[in-house]
Fold:
Amino acid sequence: MTTLVGGIEAGGTKFVCVVGTGPEDIRAQVRIPTTTPEATLGEALAFFQQQSRHVGPLAALGIASFGPLDLHPSSPSYGFITSTAKPGWRNVDLAGPFRRALGVPVSIDTDVNGAALGEGRWGAARGLGTFVYLTVGTGIGGGGVINHQMMHGLIHPEMGHIWLPRSPKEEPSFQGVCPYHGGCFEGLASGPALHRRWGGQAEALPENHPAWELEAHYISLALANFIATLSPQRIILGGGVMAQRHLYPLVRDEVRRLLNGYIQSADILERMDAYIVPPALEGLSGAAGALALAQTRVLKDMPVLEKTG
Amino acid sequence: MTTLVGGIEAGGTKFVCVVGTGPEDIRAQVRIPTTTPEATLGEALAFFQQQSRHVGPLAALGIASFGPLDLHPSSPSYGFITSTAKPGWRNVDLAGPFRRALGVPVSIDTDVNGAALGEGRWGAARGLGTFVYLTVGTGIGGGGVINHQMMHGLIHPEMGHIWLPRSPKEEPSFQGVCPYHGGCFEGLASGPALHRRWGGQAEALPENHPAWELEAHYISLALANFIATLSPQRIILGGGVMAQRHLYPLVRDEVRRLLNGYIQSADILERMDAYIVPPALEGLSGAAGALALAQTRVLKDMPVLEKTG
Ligand SMILES: Nc1ncnc2c1ncn2[C@@H]1O[C@H](COP(=O)(O)OP(=O)(O)O)[C@@H](O)[C@H]1O
Ligand SMILES: Nc1ncnc2c1ncn2[C@@H]1O[C@H](COP(=O)(O)OP(=O)(O)O)[C@@H](O)[C@H]1O
Ligand SMILES: [Zn+2]
Ligand SMILES: [Zn+2]
Structure:
């Protein structure tokens, strides 16, 4: 696949726009802060228009975006952001402006489905048919691939918003930060939840701070639920909060403790280090996934992922 | 599809064995109590041997069984029950005895994946590509179809064993009944959990007993989690406990309350009555699913479900 395509990882903080054929062949890249839809989409568009003139026409554009999104091709608001809590971005048409101005097919999916696709094609889930990509950052989101196909269904997964038991170590007065659910997974364990609970940036909490054991516990409860619900062959765990590398062994031990031997699989019982892993395309999972999304539009009949395993 | 096949719904209480071509064409049926593997499997085998002589040879056999099961075709314990809590049934070969004695291909899956398949082909999920079948009975189990394919992955879903927040109305001393996890979903909301918590058979609790509001709350928390994780187009809710029909409206209202408008879909916001539904093949979902499993072995290349929607 050498056709040049464009990709956008549309995040709540920044838009990463790339032109290339894959994560090892990125010809141009720009980071645009997420401000208003007009300003941010305008800058992104200008980048792709300029690139089309410089490096040649793009065959398609892929967008891996924060959401929730309308992903029903037949819907009048296909490609729109819908019920987001991010001010100014509700009911914003993401795909339309690019399709109209660039005149190329545009493929859109959630940021996490995109990242899963990128990791499946080039990263930590190569060869697997069923896996989950979870990001723990400003928000918590999960996407995935089941039997070599992207998860969509009614809309798309919103894995950050599952209900979890509160830890007995949790301050009873802490309500969680999700504007929709208070103490859902995102409400209890996102970066802003850490900030609200402990009163400082998560980045600044030392490694021996009790914050991390509690954080690992909540992430592990969620992963145990995803394992029981989806039976993934691997879980890729990324996002800003996971920059705390010491969380990985804590999470692996806690997931095993919570499952308590019920899921009889050597991947969980014996090879947990290879079961819950960081992204391999560190920082580029989403942008690479956006390129992969674009490529699925160039080769319409291409399976989402090759069946190598 | 008129080829005669056999089907077994293997449950913890009884085995339902059928011969036919679908739920409207069952030629013979027998119910065998689940006692020891030797006795129960022996009786089931005798039934199919006798039927083969009477109504003609079977083209294949499908088994929809309680589990967990080993469903990896390449595993030495393929078709075995693995870590079940049911005494005497751990590490029991279910598929092998039938394959050897009947000399037909045997297709095995979980009881709930089987029920999902049956409801997808002939029942309440006809035409849908992505849906969940959940049973609330002696155990709680969920299975499903994603993008027209059965859910397997690492092993198969075990949706009864997700972690949920305890209700503030729950007696703090109640530990739940799951031998692996105590107060997981099954530990809090299965028939035996109702029995343990309220001290009588669930069947005997009157409709205005506080048991049902709490039960509906736990089921709704779980369904909200499955919606956030899988984004199903419909949820089929069956099992002995759901014989309490008044639970359906309680669950629908509570799921909507818990999601709190976050999932922007008319199916949830406006058409909840058609979103969370009882099985259409009442009592036969699993046995019909077992027939459908057998049929997938006759027509090897047949898609699991036809893509009508
Ligand atoms: N080194 C770190 N340790 C802990 N938390 C971090 C770290 N770096 C970033 N975060 C937290 O992660 C969140 C940002 O997540 P990130 O995945 O980078 O972006 P976003 O979710 O906005 O796309 C912030 O809440 C921030 O506090
Ligand atoms: N009418 C009813 N009301 C409430 N609970 C019921 C009713 N009928 C059966 N149950 C409960 O459902 C469980 C049996 O579930 P069922 O789905 O019939 O079988 P199994 O799960 O063993 O395959 C028992 O715990 C029983 O108490
Ligand atoms: Zn939430
Ligand atoms: Zn359990």
